[in-house]
């Protein structure tokens, strides 16, 4: 399971775990319906609590649902919880997942996200965009005024291995400070290989401007990228398969096909829950 970079004490971790669990419980209660048939399940430690909540439901209800994973971790989680694994390819044509639940590494006031701390961002984005409703579940440590403030290890970027060095050069040209290929550490020699056989580059940037606060999209005039503009520039680099910036406008009428969640459930330190939408 992924380690959190910004917190190290066991006390704060247990408070954080309680916060994640409470947020997951509320998010499932508010957004999963017995009539739902297709449910997306994200990746990371918070989503474990989401699946635990769903697994508490009466089996006669959940047996009618199919759960679509966002990678190997969530596939195993679904299977081990006794829920039925489904795939986007099995869904009726022109339909969407009823709802999907996923975590985040950082959330700004416009509900733009950084994801991919667990290296699952590509399938996570596919599932988010294939969902009628994408619900994000996180805890109090994850919010900031501008992305890259709390999650300082860099925006995760999934790349074709043979393009990695060229992508690193391009990222530096865009202002990334010392981007690097994520390494497996003591568990694996060499780069982390994703569920899609790609590599991850972590690209640190100076804190981004949220859409609502930005005065210009260009870093030359404001000193910072907007999340939307940077997302567009990163995905345009040849060899980049997907980025961990989940941005894009959500209108009140149509939430389909958005990378952004319609709501973020944040577990708080005092046991409460804050819903951003
Ligand atoms: O994007 C992700 C994995 O690629 C996770 O959702 C994100 O890293 C949050 O994880 P956690 O719930 O463990 O904090």
From TrEMBL:
CDD domains the record matches: RPI_A (cd01398)
Entry keyword set: Isomerase
Keyword hit for Transmembrane helix: no
Pathway(s) it belongs to: Carbohydrate degradation; pentose phosphate pathway; D-ribose 5-phosphate from D-ribulose 5-phosphate (non-oxidative stage): step 1/1
One Pfam family from the record: Rib_5-P_isom_A
Reactions catalysed: aldehydo-D-ribose 5-phosphate = D-ribulose 5-phosphate
Residues that span the membrane, as ranges: none
Top-level taxon of origin: Eukaryota
Coiled coil, from the record: none
EC number: 5.3.1.6
NCBIfam families the record matches: rpiA
Family: Belongs to the ribose 5-phosphate isomerase family.
Protein name in the entry: Ribose-5-phosphate isomerase
Protein species of origin: Bionectria ochroleuca (Gliocladium roseum)
